[in-house]
Amino acid sequence: MSKENLNPLESAQRQVKAACDALKLEPAVYEILKEPLRTIEISIPVRMDDGTTKVFKGYRAVHNDAIGPGKGGVRFHPGVNINEVKALSVWMTFKCGVMGVPYGGGKGGVIVDPLSLSQGELERLSRGYIQGLYKYLGEKIDIPAPDVGTNGQVMAWMVDEYNKLTGQSSLGVVTGKPVAWGGSEGRNEATGFGVSVIAREAAKRLGIDIKGAKVAVQGFGNVGSYTVKNVQKQGAKIVAVGEWAPSVGTYALYNEEGLDFEDMKAYMDEHKNLVDYPKAKQISLDEFWELEVDILIPAALENAITVEVAEKINAKLICEAANGPTTPDADEILKKRGIPVTPDILTNAGGVTVSYFEWVQNLYGYYWSEKEVEEKQEVEMVKAFNDIWALKEKYDVTIREAAYMLSVKKVADVMKLRGWY
Length: 421
Ligand SMILES: NC(=O)C1=CN([C@@H]2O[C@H](COP(=O)(O)OP(=O)(O)OC[C@H]3O[C@@H](n4cnc5c(N)ncnc54)[C@H](OP(=O)(O)O)[C@@H]3O)[C@@H](O)[C@H]2O)C=CC1
Ligand SMILES: O=C(O)CCC(=O)C(=O)O
Known about the structure:
Layout: H1 8-22, H2 27-33, E1 38-47, E2 53-64, E3 70-77, H3 82-99, E4 105-111, H4 119-133, E5 142-146, H5 152-166, H6 187-206, E6 214-218, H7 222-233, E7 237-245, E8 249-254, H8 261-271, E9 281-283, H9 285-290, E10 292-298, H10 307-312, E11 314-319, H11 328-337, E12 341-342, H12 344-347, H13 350-364, H14 370-395, H15 399-417
Parallel strand pairs: 3-4, 3-5, 6-7, 6-10, 10-11, 11-12
Antiparallel strand pairs: 1-2, 2-4, 7-8, 8-9
Helix pairs in contact: 1-2, 1-3, 1-15, 3-15, 4-5, 6-7, 6-13, 6-14, 13-14, 14-15
This protein binds NADPH dihydro-nicotinamide-adenine-dinucleotide phosphate and 2-oxoglutaric acid.
Pfam families: ELFV_dehydrog, ELFV_dehydrog_N
Keywords: NAD, Nucleotide-binding, Oxidoreductase
GO molecular function: glutamate dehydrogenase (NAD+) activity; nucleotide binding
């Protein structure tokens, strides 16, 4: 068999093309949607603590802004590259479309291992990213947010830098900020909470009782850990968590009696990883994928589920918390094996949904309680899930195919109205 294509941009293009074909859209639609409208590459010189200057490469892509300004996170990770940023921006367009939030898709990244930087270096890098890009950002232009390797503090530095450079007070230029300075209640936990809502809804449709369901989650960062917390709250049993640590690379923890979120989080906060976590057996990532579970949740990076992995998965349902965790070829195998997948553009859309709520609150200068935010998020996500499920049933397609059909059509219709084709 030929080597599997792991270029995330080509994966995203295949998904969009399939929807354009299924909808019989004019060829111009795919021509517009196959690449971002703009991709900017910048060099960011950063004065390091030892007095030397290091230059980091950064990117920002806006895939499409027909429906509204670009929206999407900024990733700080050594594996960032232009095709990854472009693909992530494509997925953002259709994630926003699925949820009906009035944005287009954007995404950014910097090639860096943030854990190798001091706090001062991280702050100067975050500010440098904005210095290189501020002319292309704005509350109504393109709105960054957190992604892998970035957090509320990084967002606060970015907004501060933007406001200094522009002489404005534009809180809504970046979302995912700390609650103490323009952030929304519930945003930090929103992606993981949303994953739990989609997992629950899908389980219900598939006749899986979420109470006592065996769940395995790959990743214990922002999304993975809050997924664990919220799925556990629903009564599911977290039997395995997959992680990565510099000392051992990939590894996973397994306990058939169940792992506890609070206990693992406390251990993680103290030790920075879960390598020697005492209340579980350490297993390999290969063993992790083969576990017999009800729900499998990849919540780390792209290309986690390859053809090889898809062939050995023993789950009744896969919920994609990460962006692009399943390759298109692996997706075909899962389809043939009858394993349903709730796609990333629906499953992890809680983050951008609450980012939208944050932006609305910033523009209004009026803030909501955590309960209000969570309730509104849940209503929106259940509605999106039901709309997509209805399409899947009507056209006898996968959940992913239905999600793309719904979203690509929305974007195509607006582009038509605007006279883009
Ligand atoms: N943050 C958000 O709001 C949103 C994030 N997402 C997506 O969710 C995914 C996770 O993002 P997020 O949680 O924010 O990022 P974080 O940086 O908070 O966490 C990523 C986690 O994945 C771990 N990891 C990395 N590689 C592997 C691996 N091969 N196996 C197991 N674990 C691994 C990391 O470990 P280590 O830290 O040791 O490297 C870390 O714990 C990404 O795909 C992101 O794009 C989607 C929607 C919104
Ligand atoms: O909160 C946002 O604006 C976007 C989050 C994000 O990057 C994502 O959904 O992948």
